[in-house]
Amino acid sequence: YGTGTDLTAGEDLEDRDTILGLIGDVYITVEGGPGVSQEARAACAREAFVLPLIRTGGASEGMFNFPPKAVERPQWIKEEQWSLLKNKSAPVGEAAAVVADIVEMLVLPP
Fold first, then answer.
1. DSSP states of 38-60 as a string?
2. pLDDT tens, residue by residue, 49-90
3. In this structure, are residues 55 and 86 in contact, taking their beta carbons and an 8 Å threshold?
């Protein structure tokens, strides 16, 4: 991309998925399959925050052994916000705004 440094990690896709699940503080998942689920399990195991866009289906909806804890609404997220992450017919822009608000709450001091 012309900016920053590209790093190669792992010998194969399984290694990459494991490594990705070990380096972040916040993960946003969109749909996904077994690899996304593996990354989410690794992230949850070390108490990183996983925010699934449940409305997109696949792993983000709980398939492929996705961590059940990650598809449950945390108490600090309002029910109406969580509903937008689940509702497939809600406007995409509203769901995206909720994702931004949640990430902001996680990374910026109160």
1. HHHHHHHHTT-EEEEEGGG-GGG
2. 999 999 999 999 999 999 999 999 999 999 999 999 999 999
3. yes
Give the SS3 label for residue 25. Answer: coil
Query: Is 98 in contact with 28 (CB distance < 8 Å)?
Result: no
**Cα 79 from Cα 83, distance rounded (Å):** 6
Asked if 76 and 51 count as a contact pair (C-beta separation under 8 A), the reply is: no
Tell me how far apart the alpha carbons of residues 92 and 85 are, in angstroms, rounded to a whole number.
9
| Cα Rg of the chain, angstroms | 15
Question: How far, in whole angstroms, is CA 39 from its chain's centroid?
Answer: 9
